[in-house]
Every structure is written in C-alpha cells, then in structure tokens.
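Ligand-bound model needed. JCH.
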Amino acid sequence: MKFDVLSIFPEAFSSPLKISLLGKAIEAGILQVGVHDLRDWAPEPHRKVDDAPFGGGAGMVMAPGPVVEAVEAVREPGGRVLLMAASGRPFTQALAAELATEPQVVLVCGRYEGMDDRIRHVLGAEEVSIGEYVLAGGEMPALVVIEAVSRLIPGVMGNAESLGEESFAEGLLEYPQYTRPAEFRGLKVPDVLVSGHHANVIAWRRQQAVRRTYERRPDLLAAAPLNDAERDAVGDWTVDQ
Ligand code: JCH
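Prediction:
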C-alpha cells in the first residue's frame, strides 16, 4: 500500500515516519509513504498557495490550483483522496480498516482556514476529521490516519496476534493491564491476574471491559456484543446510581 501526502510543511513528517515499527515497515518497503511539498505546484516566484476568501472574513483559504494539480500529479488510477478537515466525516477504526484495503491513499493537508470547496468537487475527494477539536492544519491528522491504517496492514506491526485479540472484545473499551512489579507504591496487581487461573482471568478482563465501557463510554454499550448476563449487570448498575 502507498500513501502520498501533500503539505506545505513536508518536514513535519520526517521524524514521525522514521520511528517505531512504522518506520521499519517503510524502510523494509512493506509500506510506501511519499511526502510532497504543495509549493512545488504553486506559481513562481512567490509559490503562494493561499488567497483571501470571497465574501470576506478573517484569514486565508487554500487556493484550488496548486492542490488540484498536486493531487493529479501523484494520484494513481483508483487512488482514494482524503482532505483533512475539522468538519469532515469522522475517522474511525472502521474507516481505517477500509483504507487498509486500498492500493493508494492520497492525504491532503491544508493550513490557514481550510480549502476552496471546489478542490473536493473536482477531485471527488472525501473530507475526514480525526476528532472534535480544531487543529492548525492537516499534518497531524494525516499522521494519525497513516499510523491507524498502517498497523492494520499485514507485516507492519510484526505481531499478528495483537491484532486478532482486538476483535475479541470489539465494541468495548480495553480492560486494565498490569506488568511487574506485583506491587507498586502500595498498589497490588489484582489477585486473579497472578492466580494462574486462566478462565478466571478471561472472565475478569471481560467484566472490567464492560464496566469501563459503562463508566466512560455508555454510548458504545447499545451496539456492544453483550451476553444476557452482561446486559443484566449493566441494567443493575444503571438502577444503582
Ligand atoms: C485545519 C482550521 C479553523 C480549519 C486548516 C486546515 C482536523 N480533526 C481536525 N481538527 N482540525 C483539523 C484540521 C484539518 C485541516 C486544517 N485547519 C485549521 C481552523 C477552521 O474553521 C474556522 C477550519 C484543521
């Protein structure tokens, strides 16, 4: 799979793409990431990529010319084009899984107050948001998309087991985890985890995942795959409060 990133700050990608298993996967050629400077498609001598908004208002907008020409230069037939935007479609694990099956994803990073909307129209591009907060540009969102998608590509994360385990408790938050020492600053690891009783460990983790989801993300419970006993337990907690 190949990502092509378009940005006026291509240097923002060098360190993040060098580190960790992602960096190794790129080095090994399992994954390709092309980073391109949008100003390479902006008119000389000023290489300006922005302009004032029609209708007035504060700030500047990314002009369509350089962005559309840049995407047309790097896009391969069938390549999917995503525009990073605060007002885009939410980027979810489901969208990450879908993108992991694509041969090419082009990520366009804006700056200023966003992009001329004709860019989206002309390119048939999709706007994507990584969360409900406002950043200063699309570079960090693009890195988030690259990392979330890449770890789903076979061979990128090394350990295929850790991916499989995620689907087991799909729709729930993770259970709490512990490592050595067995006691840290007076806090003991739950006895069940050091008991060696595997079935009890599985049951405890499951119960913790359900409890945490109830406490932190009750909105997820409606669609979560709970058995009858778990549904009853959640019902009891709700009456308790
Ligand atoms: C971006 C900005 C005020 C945009 C410019 C390009 C994505 N999830 C997420 N949060 N923020 C972004 C994002 C992505 C690309 C760009 N900005 C800054 C500032 C705006 O509306 C008034 C729009 C932010």
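The chain has a mean pLDDT of 95.
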